[in-house]
Amino acid sequence: MRRMPHIFTIAVVVAGILLSATGAWAQESKIDSGDTAWIIVASALVFAMVLPGLAFFYGGLVRSKNVLGTVIQTAIIMCVISLVWVFWGYSLAFGPDKGGIVGGLDFVALNGVGLAPSDYASTIPHQLFMVFQLMFAAITFALVTGAFAERMKFTALLLFAVLWSTLIYSPLAHWVWGGGWLGAMGAMDFAGGAVVHVSSGFAALACALVLGKRKGYGTEKMAPHNLPFVLLGASMLWFGWFGFNAGSALGANETAAAAFVNTHLAASAGAIAWMVAEWMHRGKPTLLGVASGMIAGLATITPAAGFVTAMPSIVIGLIAGVVCYGGVVLKLKLGYDESLDVLAIHGFGGITGLLAVGILAEGGSISVQLVLIGATVAFCFIGTYIILKVVDLIVGLRVSLEEEQGGLDLSQHNEKAYS
Asked: Which residue of 7, 35, 74, 189 could cross-link 123, Cys pair, CB 3.0 to 4.6 Å?
């Protein structure tokens, strides 16, 4: 009986040690369950922007003989870019900085990318941050495909995707978000105005110039074959964009809430502004115009979503609808065949949003934002042009005239969407 107090004392001491150790571990681990849950959802939402969002949006915009060829491009890009990102793309974008230009190879094949927090996001697992950024890499190149819809070889697409993601997207993401020179000078891009939209827009321009016009462009009717698909895709993009922008707060916090609200308001204003501009210019409002205006508002608010408040977001969306509609009109006057208006909507929209950040955001600088825009435009346009020339030398870029006339569905995949 005399031993019981001693046993009790030892048990108390051991329990105290265990509790202290558990407390120390909990304090050391900064993973926040709420933040983690939200970024898991946000990552899934951005995935939905690609599949099915962009697949339906682009698939509806092309002619019926090319719908499967367009949709499969979007699907395979998610798969290809996912592996590129895991094996080396993420390391080039977010690995330890090398001279402000590119990340080191420390994270190749996810070496060192575990479930503990990282320097980029202190309350979520490093792997979760990595996969959230993976979705951005995938949708950026998927947007570019709208420029060369209905005329690029599938083999060329695959090689182009690997090279562009590696040599253009990853370094640019590092410049802005990964500790590179643009971020160091104070460039502000909340969720990808430069990294996603300006980059895809001016890569699209390079694609249009290198590949040339579709056979019959300007003389044959090339209207969208399925406008309900277009609206469905645009709606899925809008839905997913809540994760795209609000998720870029990297936590379930006030910034995420503000970005969510701003995203919705800008999309609504963009749709209305495009509709009115088209109505005044062409005499009737169209469903295609409303859907395009939604995307214009979303693309334009992206760089500013976490930096401004609700009322400026409406103004940004209204400006976006007019500017991006003007971009489509300009394309028609200049006569280049950038099939699905990536430059007009994403390129011009991204520039407009980045300038808005310089004017409206606390700590924003127009001069720094202009450097960001200029560097992104030059790097992405020139770099894409060179990559396309290399791909053309290796596998050839464009399908034959007969294959183009028959449609990519049959010539590239031996399938038909409609019997």
From this structure: 35
Q: Is 362 left (phi over 0), alpha (psi -120 to 50) or beta?
A: beta
- Evaluate if pTM is beyond 0.85: yes
* Contact assessment for residue 271 and residue 290, using Cβ atoms and an 8 Å cutoff: yes
Place of tokens 């019959």: 216
Nearest to 51 by CA among 237, 200, 312: 237
Per-residue pLDDT of the chain (419 residues; tens, 9 = 90+): 444 445 544 444 444 444 444 443 343 458 999 999 999 999 999 999 999 999 999 999 999 999 999 999 999 999 999 999 999 999 999 999 999 999 999 999 999 999 999 999 999 999 999 999 999 999 999 999 999 999 999 999 999 999 999 999 999 999 999 999 999 999 999 999 999 999 999 999 999 999 999 999 989 999 999 999 999 999 999 999 999 999 999 999 999 999 999 999 999 999 999 999 999 999 999 999 999 999 999 999 999 999 999 999 999 999 999 999 999 999 999 999 999 999 999 999 999 999 999 999 999 999 999 999 999 999 999 999 999 999 999 999 999 999 999 999 999 999 999 98
Bridge partner residues of 124 (DSSP):
none
CB atoms within 10 A of CB 69: 26
**Cα dist from 288 to 61, 234, 284, 328, whole Å:** 9, 10, 11, 12
* Surface-to-core class of residue 253, CB atoms within 10 Å of its CB (0-12 exposed, 13-18 middle, 19+ buried): middle
Could you give the angle at which helices 366-394 and 154-164 cross, rounded to 10 degrees?
Answer: 140
